[in-house]
Amino acid sequence: MSARRRVALPARILVVCTGAVLVWLALEALLDRDYDRPTHAVGAVLTTALVVPLVVVARRGLDRRPWAGLGLPSLRAGWRRLLLGMACWLLPAALGFALCLGLDWVEISVRTSAGDALRVAALLVVLVALKEALPEELVFRGYLQHNLATRLPAWQAVIGQAVVFTLFGFLIGAARSVDRLALFFVFALLLGAFRAATGDIWAGIGFHLAFQTVAQLFGDVGAVFDVTGSAVLGVVAMGAVPFSVGWLVVRRLYRDRLDWRAREPDPCAGAPLDRHGSGASPSG
After folding, report:
1. At residue 7, does pLDDT exceed 60?
2. What pTM did the predictor assign?
3. For 120, how many CA atoms within 13 A lie in the half-sphere containing its CB?
């Protein structure tokens, strides 16, 4: 990578985050119609097809640094953390579902056959991966959090990306109420903590994928379940239980690596690390 002076950090962040907002708004305007699966599929493919090149170009042209710093190694290297992230949501959420059903806080009935429900679930896994989990984690816990963490302690970088992610949710119309804003912020804090603990974004992708898939499956998008008490189900089984247990598990597994005061190195390609773990790099 070139050692030329980089674009200033605030400008780099502004460009990428503005680009992400414009991608989501443009696709929303382009595909603004009553929900159907083909439209959802087109939106999902286009989201990843636009966001990934945006981050690639920003990393090469604005950051002038290698892709590796963003925390998205190959699936071959990251599949265990992907599955860990999924398990950290799914297993506690299953307990939360059992609790809600056992205490009669929630009633769930199936509108269609079990086979249809499984087919919808499988399809949603792919659509959520392409429309939410991968592009959002790449932009906010990959690009944004990494860039913040080169200048700030890990805990400040986590909070910073959570604030920006919440603003993103507001700007694209996904978080306009107080409860939705709170969900976006807490969710982003958790995913940012996963990144800080594990060192990459695969666990966050897995957690995000599991949460969003099940939330859509039991909501209007999936349209295969009738749920009475959906608010309680969302807060307890999909939120409080898996969020808290999932973080406790990740923190326990990565306790020897997690350092809230650490900053991330961001060396040029091939640059040696100094004794503090940071590469020789130009300012900016």
Report:
1. yes
2. 0.92
3. 22
| Residues 242, 224: Cα–Cα separation, whole Å | 23
Q: Is the dihedral of CA 91, 96, 101, 106 positive or negative?
A: negative
What single string gives the DSSP state of each residue in 195-215? HHHHSSSHHHHHHHHHHHHHH
Separation CA 76–CA 188 (nearest Å): 25
Structure tokens at 168: 């993103």
The CA distance from 187 to 142, in Å, is 15
* Local structure of residue 139 (DSSP, 8 states): I
| Chain-centroid distance, C-alpha 254 | 19
Q: Which two tokens stand for residue 204?
A: 């966050």
pLDDT digits (tens, 9 = 90+) for 8-39: 999 999 999 999 999 999 999 999 878 899 99
Cα separation values, 152 from 30, 82, 158, 193, 265, Å: 38, 26, 10, 14, 11
Q: What pLDDT score does 4 carry?
A: 63
pLDDT value of residue 33: 78
